[in-house]
Amino acid sequence: MSRHRLTVILSQAQGKHPVKRALEESIVAALLMEPGLEVSVIPHLYDLGADHTGRLFLESVRGDMVLLSWLYPRAAFWVLDRDGIKGQWTESQLKSPTADDDEEEAGEPPPAKGIGALGVPDRHIYCLDLRDFSSHTPYVEEVRRIAAECRDRHEARQKEKTAPALVQLGVNLNATQAEAAAPYTPEQLLKPPERRWYPVIDYSRCTNCMECLDFCLFGVYGVDGLDRLVVENQDACKRGCPACSRVCPEHAIMFPDYKTPAIAGAAVGSIAGLKIDLSRLFGGGDALSIAAQERDRELVRDGRDAVGLTVGIPRRQTNKAQEPKDDLDNLMDALDALDI
């Protein structure tokens, strides 16, 4: 039986923030001393184009993977999936120190009801958020735990046929001097990519309702050969505009670079299965109205007419019967009563 080696990838922060760089370097330096790991560094995951060496390297990895990035884990996983780097979402035991209270309120998350991803191979992907801790120690300890978990799972399978040898592109930081003579130099692998902006779909939540396709008037969305929603023309997306994310009834559309956690891919939990958007509770306005305003702004910039709430408003809002109030409705009523 072949020895199992876990691929660990660190996705760098955008820019050259010294504190972030120091954390990244500390993690990599510590992991290089760990046996059974293949450690590599790539630029910021969200910015990698199809022809970037970092993206080609990710596509070459076939086994279990740990990704450390400056993105919410849910967003990071579905960026990978969008780029064709697929696997089984596997929960990490590493939790942010501030997550405990939220999880106590949230209870058990609702079961996934999305249409799911296609062509998912039998390998596990773990995503860790580099914003959770300022020290490298928790990350190193969690990678050790994951490596042991993957090794035990690999051995338990008792496969008679070993996987074919994998020649990885890019730079393997654990490689010998001979192995390091790869097709790409470190400079090529870490070449700064252009900043990008596009929606990422969480197919564990997407129900294929097509409301985002109806709402977006810029040709970003389309359908594939199986009539499943896809981001068809990501370069048509308007930089900084997250309007389609606001209208998605299942919170399945993410913009990983956006400042609001719920839109950037934070966990969906808390009250009634939804993350509360505090800007909405405290004077931020209705999500649909905000989305329409954001869309109108981009239409006008393109020399087109604003359409307001007259086009592509989610079908669930039309002639919708009054439903019993849930926890979110009751909270809103309570806030209204407080006149805050």
Give the arrangement of secondary structure elements.
Blueprint: E1 6-11, H1 18-31, E2 37-42, H2 53-60, E3 65-69, H3 73-82, E4 88-89, H4 99-106, E5 124-129, H5 137-157, H6 186-189, E6 200-201, H7 211-215, E7 221-223, E8 229-231, H8 243-247, E9 253-254, H9 261-264, H10 278-284, H11 287-301, H12 327-338
Parallel strand pairs: 1-2, 1-3, 3-5, 4-5
Antiparallel strand pairs: 6-9, 7-8
Overall pLDDT: 82
Strand content: 5-15%
For the sheet with most strands, the description reads: 5 strands, parallel
Helix content: 25-40%
User: What is the N-to-C succession of helices and strands?
Assistant: EHEHEHEHEHHEHEEHEHHHH
CATH class of the largest domain: Alpha Beta
CATH topology of the largest domain: Rossmann fold
Taking all Cα atoms into account, the compactness measure Rg is 22 Å
Name given to the CATH architecture of the largest domain: 3-Layer(aba) Sandwich
Which regions contain 5 or more consecutive residues with pLDDT less than 50? Answer: 102-108, 163-182, 270-283, 318-323
Oligomeric grouping of the chains: single chain
What is the straight-line distance between the termini? 65 Å
Instruction: Look at the helices and sheets and give the structural class.
Output: alpha/beta
Adjacency order of strands in the biggest sheet: 2-1-3-5-4
Number of strands: 9
Counting structural domains, the number is: 2
Overall shape: it is globular
Structural description of this entry:
Residues 102-108, 163-182, 270-283 and 318-323 have low confidence and may be disordered. The strands form three sheets. A five-stranded parallel sheet has the order 2-1-3-5-4. Strands 6-9 form a two-stranded antiparallel ribbon. A two-stranded antiparallel sheet has the order 7-8. By secondary structure, the protein is an alpha/beta fold. The chain has two domains: 6-189, Rossmann fold, CATH 3.40.50; 200-320 and 327-338, no CATH class. It is built from twelve helices and nine strands. The protein is globular, with a radius of gyration of 22 Å.
